[in-house]
């Protein structure tokens, strides 16, 4: 935005929050008649990205994991997932393991600013599979801004925009499983390095020169980047002529300013190969009202050197006006704006863009931009809105525009996607996450910045994760999805459908300023908020249908002090948004947990053991799970090496669904054989390592599983038997000479001989002789040519002093919040459960997870002397199924004395088998409720 309009965004009336808090009538939904629960919203998957992203905090490191944090001005707040790793001091490292074959790396980092804000460079060491590579050159040049809009590079208050990125095309392809270590070596001079994530991509070969095109080098362009190539580019455009094609060969070309384009195609060898760089390089169409036409820009990178926010400067990657044109597969970085298009103009398509590390917007359709599209693009770390349509009334309405299937994240200021005025615009299929870090949210519709009226706007099939923040001026949260009518009433309609809103730091959906009507929420799933599900702060009207909210942080799911000024129509199918709205001081947020985000394949490795060459092993199974709320398209499932696969995945894995991949091993040679199973689905790539050993023809035995793990078992008692299958994948029968076990294990078997292609079974039992970890080995000796077969055995013995209830689920007849039942198994003596006051009997119980012979329980109250001596009258009951209970200790008064027994009571049990242990409390002389701090259960000896 231009400075005068940006100032409007930053200005807030002092009276806003106080007037919004005025007590008024309450708005609540009345639950309709019971009906089938609506299907959860599936949202959108965003762009189809060619790289796999690995988070630093999930990688091997001896550095410091920071976050999660939603506090502005903190490094963690601007990191993806709100977490990162800081490396401070020589020898500190983070090691990324690539899940895919890769010949490139890109990582996001931050190094500290200097005290005066001067630019400096600092190396960081890279090791690939332990082998030192050339250092990365990192800089603070494009990060660290201060103060209020339009910001400054001079250190002061309100530091932000901490991160930058660096990338490298590697000289060869590294297979999945390769390690990339970023390490602080003695010569690495920054005082600290904070690493957010790394992207790994298999970059294809450079594209060839298009037939009939004019190469910029033929006109004198310098591919080394040393000399200014502006004149050569312009000469190539003239030589290509109207409708011609200009070719940018692999190389780096210095273009300090703009290249004017009209009725021309400019094509490169790919965004990793052909790079235009300079102080502020950009490709600009003619100015409206006579826009350029038939412009096609594709397959190159634009890397600027913009280090400030100056809204009067035209220092954008793409600019001007272009009708009937396309911009595709460009990488734009370190410009003010990736693409700022000033209308009127018509039918422009932007696709496959990577826009990163800008000082202002990623993409902005500014006034009178119609029938245009932004699709399948990746926008991150922008200094303002990620993607915006701004229907500036001086230029005309943005209309019939589509923002679809984009991934938008970490916008430092404002919103991921914003619609300022205009009509008949669509926002669909986008993934918007970790954005709205200050003064914004995920997706926004606003009658603001002198825009034309907000007309019909369709917001459908979008996913919003961790979007929104505490507005530093308003001092209340901005929603992940929010509507603002500050400069005129919004009548829309604004139709929001199939929206998945997860882990919002503050509210999920917000109405604020002016009058906002015509908002229709249909099939909206809200999963986790820091405060409210719905925050109604202004007059207007909305219709809610199939809106569900869970994991709401505030005491009520709805904030409203508007009373009848905000009218809600209940379309049915709603849940979790009813009851009495809250109207009062802003509550502190309770930040929600992390949602599942991507398709996973488990286990991460399969081991096939020894198989005769030419023979085929038994199949082993990989489960591909989609824990997200939307269907995941399956791109490919493939096995490499001496391995084959079949699968049930089809073309799509449903939301919360899974499929299976069956993998077999058929060695083509003797010795160790390795391979990979690669699953590409839902925009993620998962790799499973495969290995086995080829052996000469003859008997070849293998055991599955390769290890047995037994449930924790009371010392002297026996766990249920588990079975090992011994198979012969060889070409001749195997004679078994012996089967043996070590440790606290025993076995029976039918394995005297195993025919070729046949199998036998070994049943193993576990009877611990002592508490703690108990390990052993099953060994099958035979004449097989791959030697003895072994299976690792593990289990744990439970001693008489082991608390079976520690960390187990607990429940109660009632609770006096926050003194909930889970406090009795948290091993924290200061936390406690308290039942509803003034009502007996009450009960509390623990679920041990499986049946044990139980010998005693220990009940505790907080040991502080403030808890005076009291008697609680109680009995003990046990159950194996949670429904049918037997009284094992009759009712009796037990004294809890902070001095005599530290408020601790032990009760012997008869040693019967129980999974559920319950105490029924009928009286308490110290407080008119049931109370317990710890509920411990111990096995019988």
TrEMBL record:
InterPro entries in the cross-refs: Agl_cat_D2, ASH, CBM6-CBM35-CBM36-like_1, FA58C, Galactose-bd-like_sf, Ig-like_fold, PbH1, Pectin_lyas_fold
Name of protein: Choice-of-anchor D domain-containing protein
Residue ranges of every copy of the F5/8 type C domain listed in the record: 793-940
Cellular localisation: Cytoplasm
Entries under CDD domains matching the protein: CBM6-CBM35-CBM36_like_1 (cd14490)
Primary localization class, coarse: cytoplasm
NCBIfam families hit by this protein: choice_anch_D (NF012200)
Keywords: Cytoplasm, Signal
Organism ancestry: Bacteria, Bacillati, Actinomycetota, Actinomycetes, Kitasatosporales
């Amino acid at each position: 935005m231009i400075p005068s309009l940006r100032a409007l965004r930053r200005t807030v009336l002092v009276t806003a929050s106080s007037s919004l808090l005025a007590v008024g009538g309450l708005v609540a939904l009345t639950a309709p008649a019971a009906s089938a629960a609506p299907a959860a919203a599936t949202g959108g998957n965003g762009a189809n990205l060619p790289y796999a992203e690995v988070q630093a905090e999930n990688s091997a490191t001896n550095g410091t994991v920071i976050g999660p944090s939603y506090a502005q001005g903190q490094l963690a707040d601007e990191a993806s997932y709100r977490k990162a790793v800081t490396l401070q001091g020589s020898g500190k490292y983070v090691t990324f393991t690539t899940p895919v074959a890769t010949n490139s790396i890109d990582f996001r980092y931050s190094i500290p600013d200097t005290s005066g804000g001067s630019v400096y460079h600092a190396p960081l060491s890279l090791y690939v599979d332990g082998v030192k590579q050339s250092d990365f050159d990192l800089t603070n040049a494009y990060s660290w801004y201060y103060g209020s809009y339009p910001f400054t590079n001079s250190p002061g208050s309100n530091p932000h925009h901490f991160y930058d990125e660096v990338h490298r095309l590697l000289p060869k392809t590294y297979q999945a499983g390769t390690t990339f270590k970023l390490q602080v070596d003695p010569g690495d001079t920054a005082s600290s390095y904070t690493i957010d994530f790394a992207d790994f991509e298999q970059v294809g070969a450079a594209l060839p020169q298009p037939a009939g095109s004019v190469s910029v080098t033929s006109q004198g362009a310098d591919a080394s980047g040393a000399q200014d190539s502006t004149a050569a580019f312009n000469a190539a455009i003239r030589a290509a002529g109207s409708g011609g094609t200009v070719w940018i060969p692999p190389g780096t070309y210095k273009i300090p300013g703009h290249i004017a384009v009209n009725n021309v195609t400019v094509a490169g060898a790919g965004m990793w190969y052909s790079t235009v760089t300079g102080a502020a390089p950009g490709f600009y169409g003619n100015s409206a009202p006579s826009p350029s036409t038939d412009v096609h820009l594709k397959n190159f990178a634009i890397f600027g050197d913009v280090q400030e926010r100056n809204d009067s400067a035209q220092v954008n990657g793409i600019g001007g006006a272009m009708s009937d044109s396309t911009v595709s597969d460009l990488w734009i970085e370190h410009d003010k704006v990736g693409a700022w298009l000033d209308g009127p103009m018509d039918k422009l398509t932007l696709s496959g863009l990577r826009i990163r590390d800008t000082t202002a917007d990623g993409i902005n359709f500014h006034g009178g931009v119609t029938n245009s599209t932004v699709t399948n693009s990746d926008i991150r770390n922008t200094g303002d809105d990620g993607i915006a349509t701004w229907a500036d009334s001086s230029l005309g309405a943005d209309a019939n525009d589509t923002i679809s299937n984009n991934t938008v994240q970490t916008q430092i200021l404002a919103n991921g996607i914003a619609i300022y005025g205009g009509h008949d615009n669509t926002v669909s299929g986008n993934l918007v996450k970790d954005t709205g870090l200050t003064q914004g949210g995920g997706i926004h519709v606003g009658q603001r910045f002198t825009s034309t009226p907000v007309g019909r706007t369709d917001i459908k099939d979008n996913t919003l994760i961790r979007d929104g923040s505490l507005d530093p001026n308003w001092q209340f949260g901005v929603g992940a999805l929010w509507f603002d009518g500050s400069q005129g009433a919004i009548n829309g309609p604004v139709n929001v459908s199939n929206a998945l809103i997860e882990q919002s730091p503050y509210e999920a959906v917000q109405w604020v300023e002016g009058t906002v009507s015509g908002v229709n929420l249909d099939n909206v799933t809200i999963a986790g908020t820091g405060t409210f599900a719905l925050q109604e702060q202004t007059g207007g009207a909305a219709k809610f249908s199939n809106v569900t909210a869970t994991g709401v942080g505030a005491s009520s799911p709805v904030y409203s002090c508007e009373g009848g000024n905000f009218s809600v129509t209940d379309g049915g199918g709603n849940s979790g948004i009813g009851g009495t709205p809250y109207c009062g001081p802003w509550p502190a947020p309770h930040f929600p947990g992390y949602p599942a985000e991507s398709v996973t394949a488990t286990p991460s490795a399969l081991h096939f053991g020894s198989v005769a060459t030419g023979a085929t092993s038994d199949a082993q199974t990989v489960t591909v799970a989609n824990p997200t709320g939307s269907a995941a398209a399956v791109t490919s499932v493939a096995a490499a090496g001496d391995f084959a696969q079949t699968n049930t995945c089809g073309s799509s894995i449903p939301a919360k669904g899974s499929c299976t991949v069956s993998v077999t091993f058929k060695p083509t040679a003797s010795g160790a054989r390795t391979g990979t199973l690669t699953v590409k689905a839902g925009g993620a790539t998962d790799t499973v390592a495969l290995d086995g050993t080829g052996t000469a023809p003859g008997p070849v035995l293998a055991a599955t599983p390769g290890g047995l793990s037994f449930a924790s078992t009371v010392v002297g008692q026996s766990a249920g038997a588990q079975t090992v299958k011994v198979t012969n994948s060889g070409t001749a029968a195997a004679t078994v000479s012996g089967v043996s076990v070590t440790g606290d294990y025993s076995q029976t078997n039918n394995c005297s001989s195993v025919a070729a292609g046949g199998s036998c079974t070994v049943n193993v039992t576990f009877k611990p002789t002592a508490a703690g970890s108990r390990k052993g080995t099953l060994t099958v000796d035979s004449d097989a040519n791959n030697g003895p077969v072994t299976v690792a055995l593990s289990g744990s013995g439970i001693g008489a002093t082991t608390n079976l209830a520690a960390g187990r689920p607990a429940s109660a007849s009632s609770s006096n919040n926050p003194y909930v039942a889970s406090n009795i198994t948290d091993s924290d003596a200061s936390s406690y459960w308290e039942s509803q006051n003034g009502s007996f009997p009450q009960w509390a119980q623990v679920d041990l997870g499986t049946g044990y012979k139980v010998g005693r329980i220990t009940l505790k109250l907080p040991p502080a002397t403030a808890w005076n001596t009291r008697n609680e009258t109680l009995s003990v009951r046990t159950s194996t199924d949670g429904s049918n209970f037997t009284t094992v200790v009759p009712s009796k008064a037990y004294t809890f004395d902070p001095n005599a027994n530290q408020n601790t009571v032990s009760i012997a049990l008869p040693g019967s088998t129980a999974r559920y242990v319950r105490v029924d409390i009928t009286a308490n002389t110290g407080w008119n409720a049931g109370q317990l701090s710890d509920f411990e259960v111990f096995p019988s000896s």
